[in-house]
Amino acid sequence: MTDSIKKDAKARMGKSIESLRNELAKIRTGRAHTSLLDHVMVEYYGSDVPISQVANVNVEDARTLTVTPWEKTMVSKVEKAIMTSDLGLNPSSMGTVIRVPMPALTEERRRDLVKVVRGEAENARVAIRNIRRDANNALKALVKGKEISEDDERRAQDEIQKLTDSHIEEVDKVLAEKEKELMEV
C-alpha cells in the first residue's frame, strides 16, 4: 500500500524536475544551443508544428544557430516564426539557410532572467511540496480506513519527506547551474 504511494510520489517529483529543466532550457543565455528553438511553432500546411519537424537546427558557433528548412518554400515561414517567438531573436536568411545570431545579454537582462529562473525553481519546489501533501493525505486515508497502522504511516511519511528533500535539493542544483550559466559573460 505505502509502496505504491511512495513510487507515485517519486515519479511525480521526478516529472516536476524534468518540467523545470524543460522550462529553463527555453530561457536564453548568451550561448547558442539547439533546444532554444524547440518550442517555436511554425505554420506548416495549415497546422502549427515544432520547428524541428520542418527544419534542421544546428549550432554554427557559440553565438549563432543555423536553421535549414527541408522545403525552400518554408524559409520565410520559419524565419517569421523565429522572429515572432518570445525569444527576441532576429534571424536573417541567406538562400535556404537561416542564421540566428544570439545577441549578447546585458547585465540588467541577465538579472531579470535570473529572477525568472528563480521563479520557475520556486514553482517546481511548490509542485514537489504539493505532491508530498497529496502522498501524506493518501497515507492518512489508509490509516483512517484501518489499512495501515499509524507506525507504518509515520515511517512512510518520513520516507516521503526524505524524497521531498532530495528532490528539492535537485531543484536547487538545477537552479544554481542555470544561474551560473546566465551570469557568465
Protein topology:
Blueprint: H1 2-26, E1 41-44, E2 47-50, E3 55-61, E4 64-69, H2 75-84, E5 92-94, E6 97-101, H3 107-144, H4 150-183
CATH topology of the largest domain: Topoisomerase I, Chain A, domain 4
Work out the count of structural domains: 2
Helix-strand string: HEEEEHEEHH
Radius of gyration: 22 Å
**Shape assignment:** elongated
Q: What kind of sheet is the major sheet?
A: 4 strands, antiparallel
Alpha-beta classification = alpha+beta
Q: What's the CATH H-level homologous superfamily of the largest domain?
A: Ribosome-recycling factor
The count of helical stretches stands at 4
Task: Please name the CATH architecture of the largest domain.
Answer: Orthogonal Bundle
The strand line-up of the biggest sheet is: 3-4-6-5
Q: Hey, roughly how much beta strand do the residues contain?
A: 15-25%
According to DSSP, the number of beta strands is 6
CATH class of the largest domain: Mainly Alpha
Mean pLDDT: 87
Helix content: 55-70%
Uncertain runs are none
End-to-end gap: 51 Å
Protein name: Ribosome-recycling factor
Family: Belongs to the RRF family.
Main location: cytoplasm
Subcellular location: Cytoplasm
Provide structural commentary.
Its main location: cytoplasm. With 185 residues, the protein is α+β, with helices and mostly antiparallel strands. It has two domains: 2-26 and 106-183, Ribosome-recycling factor (Topoisomerase I, Chain A, domain 4), CATH 1.10.132.20; 34-101, 2-Layer Sandwich (Gyrase A, domain 2), CATH 3.30.1360.40. The protein has four helices and six strands; from the N terminus they run H-E-E-E-E-H-E-E-H-H. Strands 3-4-6-5 form a four-stranded antiparallel beta sheet, with helices on one face. Strands 1-2 form a two-stranded antiparallel ribbon. A hairpin with a 2-residue loop joins strand 3 (55-61) and strand 4 (64-69). 24% of the residues are buried.
